[in-house]
Amino acid sequence: MHKRQKHFYVGVDLHKQHHVAVIINCWQEKLAELTVVNKPSAFSTFLLDIDKLMEEGLTPVFGLEDGRLWTIVSAVFNRPWTSCKRSKSSSFIR
């Protein structure tokens, strides 16, 4: 099995009122789309919904879009790497 087949990918588009997550596999086939209210109390429900969709042996990889840059979130959030990438970004939004 190729290493990309061991993951599924959750892209989260962040908004003020709600967030939209699209889950795809390594072949970019859409598996699901979830909407979650932007409240701390809704986060655990969101993770449980993701867990229900997860197949045995697959690991989720989260990508968060914040208007400037897609940030890949692994098991440990790497704040210095993200800051470095943002400062080098050619984005016109600062």
Describe the structure.
The protein is α+β, with helices and mostly antiparallel strands and 94 residues long. It has a single domain, classed as Roll (Ubiquitin-like (UB roll)). The chain is built from 2 helices and 5 strands. The chain has a 5-stranded mixed beta sheet with strand order 3-2-1-4-5, with helices on one face. The C terminus is likely disordered.
Summary keywords:
94 residues; alpha+beta; Ubiquitin-like (UB roll); five-stranded mixed sheet; globular; Transposase IS111A/IS1328/IS1533 N-terminal domain-containing protein
Q: Shape from CA axes? A: globular
Low-confidence stretches: 90-94
Taking all residues together, what is the mean pLDDT?
77
CATH architecture: Roll
Tell how many strands the DSSP assignment holds: 5
Strand order of the largest sheet: 3-2-1-4-5
Protein name: Transposase IS111A/IS1328/IS1533 N-terminal domain-containing protein
Organism: Metabacillus malikii
In short:
This is Transposase IS111A/IS1328/IS1533 N-terminal domain-containing protein. This protein has helices at residues 40-53, 79-88; strands spanning 7-14, 18-24, 30-37, 59-65, 70-73.
How does the SSE layout of this entry go?
Elements: E1 7-14, E2 18-24, E3 30-37, H1 40-53, E4 59-65, E5 70-73, H2 79-88
Parallel strand pairs: 1-4
Antiparallel strand pairs: 1-2, 2-3, 4-5
